[in-house]
Structure formats: C-alpha cells, structure tokens
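step 3/5: co-fold with S-adenosylmethionine
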Amino acid sequence: MKKIYPKHIPVLLTESIAALNIKKDGIYFDCTFGTGGHSTQILKKIGKYGKLYAIDRDPEAITNAQKINNSRFEIIHGLFSNIENIAKNKNIVGKINGILLDLGMSDIQLKNPQRGFSFIENGPLDMRMNQNIGISAANWLKKTTKNEIYLILKKFGEEKFAKKIAQAIYNKNKKNPIHYTKELVEIIKSIIPIRNKFKHPATRTFQAIRIYLNQEIEELKKILVHSLKILTTGGRLSIISFHSLEDRIIKKFIKHNSAPLYIPKNLPITENKLHELHTIQLCNIARIFPTQKEIINNKKARSAILRVAEKIK
Ligand SMILES: C[S@@+](CC[C@H](N)C(=O)[O-])C[C@H]1O[C@@H](n2cnc3c(N)ncnc32)[C@H](O)[C@@H]1O
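step 4/5: write tokens
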C-alpha cells in the first residue's frame, strides 16, 4: 500500500508574509515554493495586477505547482541563484517588491525515505533536492577521500566526531559500500554516544552531506547578492533559515549592506572614493523567532529565524 507522508507545515508563515509588506500590484518571488504554503498566502494578498513568480529545484514541487491555475502565478524550475537571469528575461530587474526564501527542505522531501534525507526511516542514500542532477550521497561517499568527508562534516555539520565518522564511513565503503540511510545511521550511532534525546546523533552528519551535495551555502550567498540588484527601492527580503551556518551568512550580509564602511580616520581616502567602495543599500528591519506555541505545534520551528531587510537605494 502506498504510504501517505505528512503535509508540510510552513514555519513563521504569518510573520514572513507580513514582513513582505505586500502591495496589491507588486511583483513577488517565492524562491522556495516547496508545497506552496507561502505562495498561497502571497497570492491571496496581491490583486489583479500583482504577480508572483515561484522557483523550486525539485521536480516534485514543480509538478504540484503546475496544478495552480492562476494567471498571476508562474512557476519556474531551477535554482534560485539564477534569479537575476530570470528577472532579466522577464524584464523586471529593479521592479521586484519582495523576495521570500524559506530555506532547507520541505517535509515532503524530508519524510519520504526514497529521497534519502531521513535518518528515521530507511531508504536509498540519495539526498539530492533534484534527483536528475549530480550524484547521490552514497556515490559521493564511495568516490571521495576520507579527508574530504571529514572536512565536509566539520564545515557544514560542525560535527565534533567528524574524524571518527569519516574514518568509519571510509572503512565500511572499502569493505561493502553503503547504499542505505540506515547503514549510515548505524555507523554514526556506533561512534556518537546518545546523550541528547532531542537530537538524533545522525543530525549533523546528514545536514552536512545534504548541504554539501546541494551546494546550499553557495546558493544562499549568490541569491543574496543578486537580490540587491533586482529589488526595487522599498522592496523587501524575507528570509527564514534553520541553522546557524545560514543565519550567520544572512546576518553578515544585511549588516554589511546596511552599515557604513569603517575607514580609519588617518587613511588618505576621499568622500567619492568611499562612496564607490561601499554604498548602504539595505535597512535592517527585523529578526523574528517562532513563538513557543508554534514550536509546540511544529517541532522543526525550534531552530528557525526570520530576518527581514528593505532595499533603500
Ligand atoms: C522549506 S521548503 C519550502 C516550503 C514552502 N515555503 C512551503 O510553504 O511549502 C524549501 C524548498 O526550497 C527548495 N530549494 C532549496 N534550495 C533551493 C535552490 N537553491 N533553488 C531552488 N529551490 C530550492 C527545496 O527543493 C524545497 O522544496
């Protein structure tokens, strides 16, 4: 019998939509369509002359989005790092009123064992958000070096046991290659003592491999830079992230673009040159956390942070 997976419950939905400050005839981008929770709310708020473009890299999300029959809505299959080209093709550079990012994975991706993101249920160790592109986690672990595995677990998972886990993965793959999520989970469990009943020992390793394979950090850095070029004055950025690696990047980006550049007093530099070097383009609007009530109803909200900024120039 076909198993039914739980629906995706969007995190910080009301807050992230309110943060967009939606104008009836505005142009908006939902860069992480997923199951359309945020897109649906944006569509409710824009009027007859408003427009919503949504992006997702996952073909399954695209199939679902294509069911939306609304002339104010367009779904685009691809990476959100491509947003500047998309805006150029549509002739809307500098006209966009809001960009929403709800980073990470949807519950549909996470809870379907066939996608390989789940450390709870067994399935093929894949972890690609688009299974038609790139290589699966199992193939990557098979072909890469022990040191590379260690570096990825350290960098993207901040995993304390990175060295031991990398060694164990390497040893296992040499004898009998890992194909399933459960095999990887067993390796990790044999190394990490279970101390925290709220955090599965495989959390950090799975997070690291997923971030690396899907190039999530590069994607985020690129879209932040592109968004500055395509937003209109007064346009909003509303970004939900789920771990400190991402939040640090967003925080730094907003801070860098909203603060004057610090130049030591005695440096021989003219006002004009200073202007060339750095212009303030953003206003930092808010940092919002989920309420206790939301966290109780939706466990994954625990680690979410919403950051909001407005383009001012
Ligand atoms: C947390 S879910 C979004 C859920 C959505 N807000 C909702 O309410 O259903 C993140 C989605 O973004 C997509 N995604 C992640 N990184 C992406 C990227 N670089 N380019 C395009 N889509 C991406 C994933 O495939 C996933 O469907």
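step 5/5: annotate
The longest strand covers residues 231-241.
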